[in-house]
Known about the structure:
This protein has helices at residues 25-35, 83-86, 103-121, 124-132, 156-165, 191-199, 220-225, 243-252, 292-307; strands at 15-19, 40-43, 53-58, 74-76, 97-98, 148-152, 171-176, 185-189, 203-206, 230-234, 255-260, 280-282. It has 322 residues and is an alpha/beta fold.
Amino acid sequence: xxxxxxxxxxxxxxxxxxxxxxxxxxxxxxxxxxxxxxxxxxxxxxxxxxxxxxxxxxxxxxxxxxxxxxxxxxxxxxxxxxxxxxxxxxxxxxxxxxxxxxxxxxxxxxxxxxxxxxxxxxxxxxxxxxxxxxxxxxxxxxxxxxxxxxxxxxxxxxxxxxxxxxxxxxxxxxxxxxxxxxxxxxxxxxxxxxxxxxxxxxxxxxxxxxxxxxxxxxxxxxxxxxxxxxxxxxxxxxxxxxxxxxxxxxxxxxxxxxxxxxxxxxxxxxxxxxxxxxxxxxxxxxxxxxxxxxxxxxxxxxxxxxxxxxxxxxxxxxxxxx
Length: 322
């Protein structure tokens, strides 16, 4: 049970701007309104006096708009990513930012990645194809201990994934920008270690944040370093993967398949060849949906921290971009 943030007595009237067009957005706003009864909510584009806005809980607000609030004290993302904020060239300097770090969302991501890792490992793609051809044939099968799964990104979601996979007995490796150690995981870090990490990852789970450094990271060179027949699971951001290079790797047999939950353009256009590629599994960005019942209290608690003159919990590192 998440404790409700207390009302801050005597705090001057202030306003919070809300913008989130997801299906869950209205439930998040309603939850925040109940938890912050002393705060005036303004839903984009009904801003009112911009000088009143001290908090912004926003997802993909039109670029340049945040710069128009002179008294902004904090920017809160209702999702795990903040790339949508850093893509704004006019993002206000000096205003602290926080993304949503929710254990429930991490658990959902771990479920999704574990399911697809097992799907690939136990060759269900192969058997689905055999079934379509009414072919009764058994495919060679490795044991989990002989299969190395690489987790690209060891943040909250990556660590949750390793913990969910560990009981299955996989050989686990993880890569991160800086050293992050996790029990049962061979950890690698930094640019110099990326090539070796990729070369041993038979199943690659991508959970990196999108930054200028990671955009297009999984292109021809990186995909070519994976073991032949490797499987890619991407639940991070579509722009981490160069789509044309992914298709080429699938067609050449470099990759045996890919499970994709995120894409450069969402919804995925009807004419995109990924829809019909026989080696691709597609889901509509559902691997780790924000849960209003846990997100609202966490976002409200961040507002209360700032009202008390405290720093945000786990603020975003602007230099790192996450």
